[in-house]
Amino acid sequence: MIQAQTTLTRPQITALLLDELRDMDVTIPDSINDDTAFKDDLGIDSLGIAEFVARMEQTFRVEISDDDWHTLYTLGRAADYIESRLGQ
User: Fold this and answer.
1) Catalytic: 34?
2) pLDDT digits over 46-72, tens only?
3) The domain that contains 34 carries what CATH number?
4) Residue pLDDT, tens place only, 22-49
5) Could you give the number of structural domains in the chain?
6) Which of 46, 12, 18, 11 minimizes the C-alpha distance to 32?
7) Residue-number span of the structural domain to which 41 is assigned
8) From the centroid of its chain, how far is CA 42?
C-alpha cells in the first residue's frame, strides 16, 4: 500500500496495477500495453473486475465510485484514473 502523499509516476502506477493483476493469478502477456482490455484481452470477468477495483482502492488509497467502474476497461484507463485521483 502506498502513502497518500506519495507521488508516483505513470509507469510506477502501471507497474503496481500489473502486480495486482498478477496477485489475482491473471496471466500477463508480453505484449501488454495501455490498450489491453481487462475483459477481452485478459479474460477478467465482472467478479474479477470487482476484485481488481477493490485492490486498486486499497493499494492506492482512492475511492472508485460504482459509476466509474465501466470506464476502467483497459490498463491505460485504469492507470489514468488512478493518476488523476492521487493526491486528492
Assistant:
1) no
2) 999 999 999 999 999 999 999 998 899
3) 1.10.1200.10
4) 999 999 999 999 999 999 999 999 999 9
5) 1
6) 18
7) 10-85
8) 13
